[in-house]
Amino acid sequence: MRRRIIVSAVIILILALLQMSVLPWIPAVFLQPNLLLVFVVSTGFMRGRRSGIWMGFACGLVLDLFYGPGLGFHALLLMLIGYANGFLCKIFFDEDLKMPVILVSVSELFYGICFSIYTMLSGGHYSFWKYVRLAILPELISSVIFTFILYKIFFMINQRLSAYELEEQQSPWLRK
Fold first, then answer.
1. pTM
2. How far is CA 105 from CA 39, 77, 132, 142, 144, in A?
3. Domain 2-170, what fold?
4. Of 76, 127, 132, 150, which sits most exposed with the smallest number of CB within 10 A?
C-alpha cells in the first residue's frame, strides 16, 4: 500500500509538470490535454471508487494550487469524476481501450461544462457555445489522444503494483 501511494505521488508530480510546464511549449501539441484527469479516470476505472476519490482529491488539489479559481473547486470536481468512474470498476477488462476512451471523453465533457458554469456564475461574461467550441472540444480531443498512450502505461504500473501487493500478502514472513 505504501508503495502504491509513493508511485501515485510520483505519477501525479510528473503529469502535473508535463501538463503545466512542458506541453504548453511544444509546438506540435497545440491542444492542451488534461493529463491529471486522464490519471483520475484511469485510477477510478482500474482500482474502484475509493482510489478514484483519493486520486481525484490529490490531482484536484494540485490543479487548484496552480490553476484554480479557488482552493477546492478542482479537487471536488475530480473527486466526483473519480468516484463516478470507480463504479465501473466491476466491468474492467484487461487492455481494452474502448471503455477508458469513452470514460475520459464523458469525464472531460463534464469537467469542461462544470468549469464553464462556475466561471459564468463567478462573473465571467462569455458565450457558452463559443467556450465549448474553443476550449472544451479541443481539450477533449487532446485528452482522448493522450489516453491511448497513458492508459497503457497506467495499466502496466497497476498490474505490477497489484502483483507486488499480492506477493506481499502471501509472504510467510509478513503474516500476522
1. 0.89
2. 13, 15, 14, 10, 7
3. Arp2/3 complex 21 kDa subunit ARPC3 (1.10.1760)
4. 127
